[in-house]
Every structure is written in C-alpha cells, then in structure tokens.
Amino acid sequence: MQQTSVPGKVLVVEDEDSLREALRYNLGRAGYAVFAVGNGMEALEAARREKPDVIILDIMLPGLDGLEVCRQLRREMATPILLLTARGTESDKVVGLETGADDYMTKPFSLRELQARVRALLRRASMGGGPPSGTGLLRFDDLEVDEVRHQVTRDGAPLALKPKEFALLAFLARNKGIALSREHLLEKVWGYDYEGDIRTVDVHVRWLREKLEADPGEPRRIVTVRGVGYRFDG
C-alpha cells in the first residue's frame, strides 16, 4: 500500500519526560504527525482537539490515570488506543483491553516493535476495524448503534455494554448479512496479537444475545452459521 509523507496523526500520552520525547522524536522521524502530552486531562483535551488516528496511552499517569482516560475516550470516539504500562500481568492486560484499548505493550519495549504496532492499528482501522465513517449511526428496527457516541439503544433505552461487547456488535452490524468466522472476528475486534482463543468470541456473543435478543435461546439478530461463525441479521 502506498503511503503519503505523513502516514498518520499520533497522540502520545506519557508522563515520563525522556520516554515521551523519545516517542515524539522517533515517530516524527517515521513520518507521523506527533502530539505529546504528559497527563490525563491534557490527553482528553488533545484527543478532542487533534482527532488523532492512533493514541499511545500510558496507564500510570498522575491524576486521571490511563484507564479512565481510555474509558472516557471510548464513549466519544473509536480511535485505536495502544496502552503502555510497567505492569505486565495477565489481569492488567485484560483490564486494559476490556476498558476499550486495542493493543497493549509492557515497558520496557523496543521502539521498532511499537512502530510496528502503530502501523498495524492504522492498517486495521483502514480495513474497517477502526473508527467509523460518515455519521457512524446504524439503525436496525428497534436497535440503534451509535459508533461516534459509543452507545447502543433498544426501543430508545440505552444498553449497558462492555467495550468489547460494543466493538463486536459494531463490527457485526457494519457487516450485516455476512457470515464471519470466529477467527476473523477475533482478529478484527481483539487484535492480531491477542493471546486468547476463539471461545472469547462465543462468550461475548452470548452476552450480547442476552441484551439484544427477545429470546437468547432462539437468536434472530446474531445468528450462528454452522461451520463458519456468526452473522448479524439486524
């Protein structure tokens, strides 16, 4: 794929001065337009103002931490978010991804790997796994999926969905009528390097059916396609 001289706009949120400047410098050399801030409140303001293509977000920030920043941004935009943290336990990773992040890196990391992750996030977004185009509003009878506001309503009443439930529903809805394999859904919604297995998709589909279907035992919106995966019928 041919790239322009500026392959994307990146917001870096990191309170450690030396790392923040290293990321700014190296991503800038790679051709990205880089905006760098050092705390959570500045991150929210910069994300809303600059509308970046990717956000690199440290979890351990002074004041408003990275997880809360991620939660708030996910209610407003679908921009890919790469979390950085000094903690690398599985529970930390799960919390980060369930908060709405798209990828996760543990410090210390190589700048080469980080740039590869950024490129992958941009590529996935351009292939339809990222921010919505147009109004981002999808309507199906009594169901409405608002990708910009990160909100789902049924009969006008908002539904409480976890970030990955929302991401899965939005991706299925954008591909209405198409049978999608579990592997494809896992790659597009959880990411190419997600270390879980395809049963994660089944669990999230079950949770969605409990909230969307009149009878979860006889689903009509998210149907199982035997030997393939799932299809959204609206």
* C-alpha geometry: elongated
Mean pLDDT value:
85
CATH topology of the largest domain: Rossmann fold
CATH superfamily of the largest domain: Response regulator
Strand tally is 12
The run of helices and strands is EHEHEHEHEHEEEEHEHHEE
Explain this structure to me?
There is one protein chain. This protein is α/β, with parallel strands linked by helices. It has 2 domains: 9-129, 3-Layer(aba) Sandwich (Rossmann fold); 137-232, Arc Repressor Mutant, subunit A (Orthogonal Bundle), CATH 1.10.10. Helices cover 41% and strands 21% of the residues. The protein has 8 helices and 12 strands. A 5-stranded parallel beta sheet has the order 2-1-3-4-5, sandwiched between helices. It has a 4-stranded antiparallel beta sheet with strand order 6-7-8-9, with helices on one face. Strands 10-12-11 form a 3-stranded antiparallel beta sheet. Strand 3 (54-58), helix 3 (66-74) and strand 4 (81-85) form a beta-alpha-beta unit. Helix 2 packs parallel to helix 3 (66-74) and helix 6 crosses helix 8 (199-212). The longest helix has 19 residues, at 111-129. The protein is elongated, with a radius of gyration of 18 Å. Residues 1-6 and 129-134 have low confidence and may be disordered.
Provide a compact summary of the structure.
This protein is 41% helix and 21% strand. The protein contains eight helices and twelve strands.
